[in-house]
Amino acid sequence: MPGEAPTVTVKGKVYVDLDTIVQLLGASQQRTGNRVIVRLPKRGAEDPDSEAKLSRPFIVAGIELMSTIREWRHMIITATAGSYPFLEDRAGPYGRNADSKLALVTGAAVTEADRSVLDLLNKETDLMRKFSDKYVGLRKASLGVLPEDVENDPLGLQILDCARGLSALAGSQRFQDVIACH
Questions:
Q1: Model pTM?
Q2: Directed axis angle between helix 56-81 and helix 154-172, to 10°?
Q3: pLDDT tens-place string over residues 45-73
Q4: What is the domain extent for residue 84?
Q5: Its domain of life (predicted)?
Q6: Domain count of the chain?
Q7: Do the domain assignments include residue 45?
């Protein structure tokens, strides 16, 4: 959809008014606190099956979120098993990064399939946060944890199973419930 928007350059970066972009795209926006969710319009009638498919931007954003969760889980396992100090300081940025990626995924959800998978991605992020909080709490309480206990933690294994199921959805580009995410 062609259109023009005025820009402003600040310190070498080009900025465009968000309201103008939303209008040009025929999108809608939702503002909550310091966050803005932009919802792109539904796909046209060129593909009657489009609502049943995962959109490409959603898949890409979902993969980025899942990569962040994988790295976060690995850091918790490595840091806890290795008794590294300051686990809370290490875990915090991963949680904030996951929140940021989840906001991007939320904004990219345009089809019914996207919105169904978004629910699973929210659950996966919640599972990871519980896993992280558990081991940060154990560290704060100065309780030792064996490496195999962290690696075989049922919650950590559930996160892996959920991730595998979500990965299969990205490959098929269709929604199917992933029981491990619940």
A1: 0.73
A2: 160
A3: 455 566 789 999 999 999 999 999 999 99
A4: 50-181
A5: Bacteria
A6: 2
A7: no
